[in-house]
Amino acid sequence: MWLYTFKRLLQGVVTVWFIATATFIAMHNVPGDPLLNDRAMTPEIRANVEAKYGLDQPLATQYFIYLRNLAQGDFGISFTQENRQVNDIIREHFPVSAILGVLAVVFAAAGGVLWGALTAIYRNRLPDYIIMFFVILGISVPSFVVAALSQVSLVNLNSLVGTTVLPVAGWGTIFHMLVPAMVLGLGTMAYLTRLMRSSMLEIISSDFIRTAKSKGVPPARIFTKHQLRNAILPVVTVLGPAIAAITTGGFVVEIVFAVPGLGRFFVEAVQQLDYTVIMGTTVFYGAFLVFMVIVVDVLYGFIDPRMSMK
Amino acid sequence: MTKPVLIANDKGFAQSAVKQLGFYAVCTIMGLAVLMYLLSLAAGNTGGGSGISGINVEDNSITITLGQEPPQLDSSRATDAASASVLGHAMEGLITYDQNNQLSPGVAERWEIREDGATFWIRDDAFWNDSRPVTAHDFVFAWERVVDPITASEYAFILYPIKNAEKINQGELPKETLGVHALSDQILEVEFEQPTPYFDKLVAFNTYYPIREDFFESTNGRYGADADMLLYNGPYMVTEWVHGSSMLWEKNPYYWNEEKGFLDKIIASYITTDVNTKINLFKDGQIADTSLVAPMLPQAMEQRWQIDRVMDGTVFFLEFNHREERITSNLNFRKALSLAQDPNELVYKVLKEAAYLPAQSLFPVWVQGVSEQFRKEYPPREHKIDVLKAREYLELARQELGLDEFPPIVFLTGDTPISLLASEYYQQLYLENLGLEIRIDAQIFKQRLAKMTSGEFDVVMAGWAPDYFDALTFGDLFASWNLNNRGRYNNEEMDRMIRIAQSELDPLIRMDAMGAIQSIIEEDVILIPMYERGVSFVVDPRLKGLIRRIVGPDVDYNYAYIDVSED
Amino acid sequence: MQSLSSVDFAPISNSQEVHGISRPSLSYWQDAWIRLKANKRALMSLYIVIFLLLFTIVGPWIWRVSPAAQDLDQVSQPPGSSRVALIVDDYTPWFGEGNSPETGLRTFGDPTTQVVRLQWNALPGAAGHRIYRNLFPLGPERAYGIPIGEFFDNNTLFFEDRLDLKPQNYYYSVVALGQFGELLDSYELIEVDVKRVTTIAEALEQELISHTNNFQIGDAIDMAWHPLGTDYLGRDMLARLMAGARVSLFIGIGAPFLFVLFGVTYGSIAGFLGGKIDQVMMRFADFVVALPFLLFMILFKIAFGVGPGESGVLPMLVALVILMWPATARLVRGQILLIREQGYISASQLLGAKTPYLILRHMIPNTLGVVLVTLTFAIPSAIFTEAFLSFIGMGVVPPTPSWGSMSNEGIKTMLTTPHELIFPAVIISITVLAFNLLGDGLRDALDARMRNQE
């Protein structure tokens, strides 16, 4: 087991190197100039700025400097936010995205398991249809529409009640987190519900459940010990990538709800062609993704008895 | 083989399963609550000053939004609107603007502008927020820093009227030779490179703000990067700066002017560019004011808000590429394009912004002439759309250029919603009226500038915001030496007029020159005026004294105060 | 004891009808097809998909309106609004001439969608005036509406309003200004009913009339019909949806097709060759999977750059293909590995089959089921991605329409003209849903056979 973990970690490092290289190549093919601003720059001023950011070196040299800095954990200085290290930006804003992401995943997972189990129990009866209807909405309505609609509904709710039930945007307390996290987790919750449902149905008709019943095990125990536990497994496998996907895909929610997360910074950095922030954020997210997948795989190994026999 | 008994169909099973699920659901919810509490603690640590109310009467504070995060607050290098807004509250220059947009004494209590230079007398009750006085030396240091080529200040050009400034900036002279001296702590003496009668208007601009040398040295290169890396001499101080999230401005007890700075705190929270979010925040009462865009106006009326509007001073126009190899360097071609369009249709039917004015000239409506509005004294030529005539000019151009057909014309534009809207409109318009194929090249700001500088466009949708309150800020745009003249328009007569306007002391002759500049722009169709930008906005009725400015910090809260008495 | 004779031992006649074949032998595909048809939901989604394809391909031939034509007199019209307009003269500027004997705030001439002309007399105590326009009558809050004109002297007592005039009622107010431009108390208010008009020139341009001789000032004509309404530039929504369909479906179906094709090739080679080569190939695929999807979509988009006049469709297509092929490759490889161990493969080999024959005749057809399902699920994912990226402005470049960018525009006016959002959002949802259900149905139909259940 430990050998496996170590091997995976090693692979992870190589993967991160690959991501860093891909990012470097992509960024340096971008047309345009990061240094220009509204008022024209004289050639002297320009040369100074170029020297400061090391843009006057040949490409290969820049690549090695870049890799060396990365290995030391230094992502460089932002082009647009001068005097701010990219590390600082990531350090201050990633936790926000992470918190939002974790909450969203917890909502999605808890909700997905719950609704999925319910639909399996009440298969083809009314609760099933109702839940599946919402699931269908959750899968097919684009997330940005949901975000905009929910913000407007919040405003109307607040004005209806008279005081602020939930803040409409911003960050800082638990109340700021609720709606953005729910909006963010909605798509994944719908997906997990379906997954849970089909997984439960598969198990219900499988052999070992029949065996348990014929043995006389009380239905409640069958449900908990066998069905639920086994049905959750596919959900867990998906969780790792789901966490990463939610954390990196949250920028629409961050923009609409004015959450100071890393995703929103990434979009702004792209709009301003801030090379260092773009590269640093991408490599960071990539590393995070890789790490999450490894963690889930290792955890899965502990949960699934079949795996540990490999 | 018998069908396997589907356990799910067993009613008793369903009930007990649901009970189990219910039990788990309750556990999960409790777990969630704990989790959320923990997360909330964590979130509190990540900052994000959440001023929940736009107007806080007990605290005498308001909450506002900042559209963008200022990259840094070093006044000698700031170029963007967000920095200008913060600096306009946290610092003060020699001269400042009062509630009626007139120049009024700032750090300087009086001044004198002569042909060869200017003198400023600095008041003795102007202090930095560490209780030390603001002196003439602070200005000398700051201005020398601006023109020093090592600083790489993109706004250094605004100091060029000062003697030797340009040469220093080009690296030809040491910065100590700058024509500004502190005759004493209270007297600042400036020498001009050439007569500059509008120097008092220049000096109000944030590049001219003071910086104290000893403090600057103590920051070790991080001056302006954080709230504690700055000294403040304005009505407010920046006491907290949570990057990417919020800023806190507090009343500066050392500030001299009792007629400014009435609020105790201004919480600049919610850094967001999304207009919907801002409006929702305002509806919710979480911010004190917001600007509106056309799609929001019906809602604003429904909410019975008091809507106001103001010009923001910027003029937008279609600028042509005058480089020889371009089709747009042909005068008849430009005339054709100009006659085939009508800015009124653009503003009234397409953009639909209530605060925009269709532009008639490069000089906007509010610019002053000798004694009245510039455009009253020097009326621009009337423009009327004439598609048939436009087609004639187009045909002439085609013959002059020796083309069988016109190739596609590249329209460079920005990526903001308004620029995209306008470019879509023009594309269809020129296709229908002139049969021209327009290719839209939408670029983000920096890339658009890069293309403008390298000349990779035929027409570009550009705008110019005034730096100071004088017609020259628009008039010198097309000087052949001006780096901002990205179409590379080159005309000796224009250059001559600009030089007159720059250095002539007699206001009548100056303004005549400006009038001549306007005429040259019209006759040579250097550009096609589109619109003068304005903004519709709403303010919480309890907040009074808020000022919007064309030049200077916009929105200006320096004179704002809370008044809860109902009318 | 009964006596047995040789007759008792005579053989029974051969009956041909021993085992009746109760149903014809079905191939894998025929079986799956029957299953699919039995699944009501999947069948409906199949019909929807076919309808969408027809809508996209055949639609523009039937509804021949250009998606780019701007009908600027009918901007942001919801479906079903009235289209009648009166013909008037072309617009000429008015400078306040023609004072009528009335006093107070009044209109000059008929208020039309072309222009509303107002005149007033100086209000008591005013140093200037401001004109407001409102959609609602004045209430106790004294919210006058949107300011549309300011005059800082008492010489200008007229105003022309041409801003976005719709055929409805407006409430105009003139409010007195003090010497510093501040609002004073005195005001006047009138209600104005604006009529829709158009000029002969515009009617000709919009092809509403073919000959000027038949029409004169004062005639009523119908403006162009837009069954689904118009967008913010007066463009026909139905035509835009069709044009957008082409883009969204081109990316949504084209990209999955390409990356599945590539993934199948890659995966079958890896799976079949096995060993070291397989390891290396899969390792590379793992790397590509590790790239954060959305971030790299955006990176690729700005790296490829979009030149003037290009639509941004190709970069997005390429980016999608580059990022999504590994999942298919893995899937196919897994399948191939499974199939390799099957009995009929060894049997074939024993009978002398060569490798290409094995791949083409046995392996690939048997993976097609899985591939088809992947393809069907990849399509809504691609459509969503395109819509999402276009929403944040990182997708196709205007003026190219796509359902995503139309939704983006629609959200801005969600509360006032919801039809601009509803139509593209709904069609995205329906498409995504249809492909999802179809994928479900296909998977059930194909999987069941493979699993050897009843």
Description:
The complex is a heterotrimer of chains A (310), B (567) and C (454). Chain A has 310 residues and is an all-alpha fold. Helices cover 76% and strands 0% of the residues of chain A. In chain A, helix 1 (2-28) runs antiparallel to helix 12 (275-303) and helix 11 packs antiparallel against helix 12 (275-303). The N and C termini of chain A lie close together (9 Å). In chain B, strands 12, 13, 14, 15, 16, 17 and 18 form a seven-stranded mixed sheet that branches. In chain B, strand 7 (180-182) and strand 8 (187-191) form a beta hairpin. Chain B is globular and about 90 Å long. The model of chain B is unreliable at 1-9 (pLDDT under 50). Chain C is α+β, with helices and mostly antiparallel strands and 454 residues long. The interface between A and B is large, with 83 and 87 residues.
The fraction of residues in strands of chain A falls at under 5%
Structural class of the secondary elements of chain A? mainly alpha
Helix content class of chain A: over 70%
Q: Output the radius of gyration of chain A.
A: 24 Å
Q: Report the C-alpha radius of gyration of chain C, rounded.
A: 35 Å
**In terms of per-residue confidence, which ranges of chain C show pLDDT below 50 for 5 or more consecutive residues?**
none
Strand content of chain C: 5-15%
Low-confidence stretches of chain A: 37-41
Shape of chain A: flat
Sheet of most strands of chain A: none
The tally of helices of chain C reads 12
The quaternary structure here is: heterotrimer
Proportion of residues in helical segments of chain C: 40-55%
Task: State the order of secondary-structure elements of chain C, H for helix, E for strand.
Answer: HHHEEEEEEEEEHEHHHHHHHH
Secondary-structure map:
The complex is a heterotrimer of chains A (310), B (567) and C (454).
Chain A: H1 2-28, H2 43-52, H3 59-71, H4 86-121, H5 126-140, H6 143-161, H7 174-204, H8 207-215, H9 219-249, H10 251-256, H11 262-271, H12 275-303
Helix pairs in contact in A: 1-12, 4-5, 4-7, 4-9, 4-12, 5-7, 6-7, 7-9, 9-12, 11-12
Chain B: H1 11-45, E1 55-56, E2 61-66, H2 81-90, E3 95-97, E4 103-105, E5 108-113, E6 117-122, H3 136-147, H4 165-169, E7 180-182, E8 187-191, H5 199-203, H6 213-218, E9 236-242, E10 246-251, E11 265-271, H7 275-283, E12 289-292, H8 297-302, E13 307-320, H9 331-339, H10 343-351, E14 357-358, H11 374-377, H12 387-401, E15 409-413, H13 417-434, E16 438-442, H14 445-454, E17 459-464, H15 472-475, H16 492-503, H17 507-523, E18 527-539, E19 543-544, E20 561-562
Parallel strand pairs in B: 2-11, 15-16, 15-17
Antiparallel strand pairs in B: 1-2, 3-4, 5-6, 6-8, 7-8, 9-10, 10-11, 12-18, 13-17, 13-18, 14-18, 19-20
Helix pairs in contact in B: 9-12, 16-17
Chain C: H1 28-38, H2 40-57, H3 59-62, E1 84-88, E2 106-107, E3 116-119, E4 128-134, E5 146-151, E6 158-161, E7 169-177, E8 183-193, E9 197-199, H4 200-205, E10 220-222, H5 237-273, H6 275-290, H7 293-304, H8 313-340, H9 343-350, H10 355-391, H11 403-412, H12 419-451
Helix pairs in contact in C: 1-12, 2-5, 2-12, 5-6, 5-8, 5-10, 6-8, 7-8, 8-10, 10-11, 10-12, 11-12
